[in-house]
Amino acid sequence: MKKKIVFMVINMNVGGTEKALLNMISEIPKDKYDITILMLEKYGAFLDFIPTGVHIEYLKEYKELKDILNRPPKTVVINLFKKGSIISGLSLIVFHLISRFVGNRIMFFKYFLRNVPVLKNEYDIAVAYAGPMDLISYFVVNKINAKKKIQWIHFDITKIGFNKHFASNMYSEFDKIFVVSEEAKNKLVKVVPTLKEKSEVFLNIVSPDIIRIQSKEEEGFRDNFDGLRILTVGRLTAEKGQDLAIEVLARLIKNGYKVKWYCIGEGDSREKYEKLVEGYNLQNQFIFLGANPNPYPYIDQCDIYVQPSRYEGYCITLMEARALKKPIVTTDVNGTREQIIDGENGIIVNINEDEIYKGIEKLINNKELCNEFSRNLSNKSFNSAIQIKKLFNVF
C-alpha cells in the first residue's frame, strides 16, 4: 500500500518555496507514495506545473478567515461593526489583546479556527511546508491526522517576523524540523535551543537535466541586444535587493559599459522599482520581464547571473544558475557559501551597491574568469537522492 504524504502551502504562486516543492515531488517515486498538496487558496501560475497524479486540495474556509488573519485587527473590527457583527468584533478585540498580552498566538489560532474541522483523510506524513508560517504550522499540528509531522523552514528566521514563543511551543509537536541550509539551521537552534535534536538540514532540490531541457523549450530574450546581459530572478520585494541592482546598473551605464539588466519576477515593490528606474532614466536598460514559471531560457542566454538579495534561506535561483553554468555574482546571505566557493565558481560580495558593482565589473573585464567559473560549475554535483532519503527516513 502506498504511503500518503500531504504538503501544506499558502498557494502555488511563482516563488522559490513552491518551486522547491515541485522539484522534490518530481523525485518522489509515485508508485510508492500518494501525494497531496493542500493550499490555503487555490491560486498561482505553478498550479499548471503540478505533476499528474498529485492530489490538489485547498482550505475552503480560508477565504472567510483571510481578512481576519492578515489585515490589521483595528480594520477588521471596524468592518465587523459596520456589518452589525458586534459580538464578533468584540470577541476579536478580546482575543487579540489576550494573545498580545500573554504572547500566545496558539490561543488566537485556536479561537479563529474553532469551526474548521479536522481533515477527514489520514496521512502517514503531514508537512507544514510553507514555513515559518504560524497558521500552517498550527493547522498541520491540530487539524490533520498523520503518523508523522514535519515542519519546514525556508528562511533566515532572524530576518523575518519569527515568533519565538509560538515556535518553542508549536514546533515541539513536530517529529522533525527540516531547514534548508546549515546556516539557517544554526540560527534557528540559537533562537530556540530546545529544537536542536529535531532539526536537520534538507537542501532544496533541483534537477539539472530538467532545467537544461526546459531552457531550450522557449525563446528567451527577444530584443536583439548585442551587449552584455545581466539577469536576476526573484520576487520584486526588498529582501531580494532589486533596488541595489538598479543602482549598480546606473553606475555601469555611467562608466560606459554596454549592458542591460533583466529582472524576472513580480511583487509588491514593482511600482517603487519602476519609479527608481525612471529616476535613473534606465527604462531601456533595466527590463522588467514579469513572472515566468520557466525562467531557464533567460538564465541560459544571459552573460552574468546576479543575486543581490538581502537575505535568503537557501537560494534556489542560485542553484538554477549553477546548473546552467553561468558566471555568478551573489551577496553573502544564508546558504550562499554552501553553494558557491568565492573566486572558484562565483563571486560572493557584501550586501551593498559598491560591492555588487565591483563583482560584476570584475567579470565584465575578465572573460577567462567567467569561463573558469563555468568549467568549475560543470564539476559541481546535485545529489538529490541524499536529500530525498532524509524525508523517507522520517517513517
Number of helices: 16
Global shape? globular
Q: How are helices and strands ordered from N to C?
A: EHEEHHHHEHEHEHEHEHEHEHEHEEHHH
Question: Between the first and last Cα atoms, what is the distance in angstroms?
Answer: 14 Å
The structural class is alpha/beta
CATH topology of the largest domain: Rossmann fold
In what order do the strands lie side by side in the largest sheet?
3-2-1-4-5-6-7
Largest sheet properties: 7 strands, parallel
Layout of helices and strands:
Elements (H helix, E strand, L loop, with lengths): L2 E7 L6 H12 L5 E7 L15 E4 L3 H9 L2 H10 L3 H17 L2 H8 L9 E7 L5 H10 L1 E9 L10 H7 L5 E4 L2 H10 L7 E3 L6 H7 L13 E6 L8 H13 L4 E6 L5 H10 L6 E5 L5 H6 L2 E4 L8 H8 L4 E4 L15 E3 L3 H12 L2 H12 L5 H10 L2
Helix pairs in contact: 3-4, 4-5, 10-14
If you had to describe this structure to a student in words, what would you say it looks like?
The chain is α/β, with parallel strands linked by helices and 395 residues long. Helix content is 41%, strand content 17%. The chain is built from 16 helices and 13 strands. The strands form 2 sheets. It has a 7-stranded parallel β-sheet, sandwiched between helices. A 6-stranded parallel β-sheet has the order 10-9-8-11-12-13, with helices on both faces. It is globular, with a radius of gyration of 22 Å. The model has no long low-confidence stretch (mean pLDDT 90).
Give the gist of this structure.
The chain has helices at 16-27, 62-70, 73-82, 86-102, 105-112, 134-143, 164-170, 182-191, 208-214, 242-254, 270-279, 296-301, 316-323, 353-364, 367-378, 384-393; strands spanning 3-9, 33-39, 55-58, 122-128, 145-153, 176-179, 199-201, 228-233, 259-264, 286-290, 304-307, 328-331, 347-349. The strands form two sheets. The protein has a seven-stranded parallel beta sheet, sandwiched between helices. It has a six-stranded parallel beta sheet with strand order 10-9-8-11-12-13, sandwiched between helices. It has 16 helices and 13 strands.
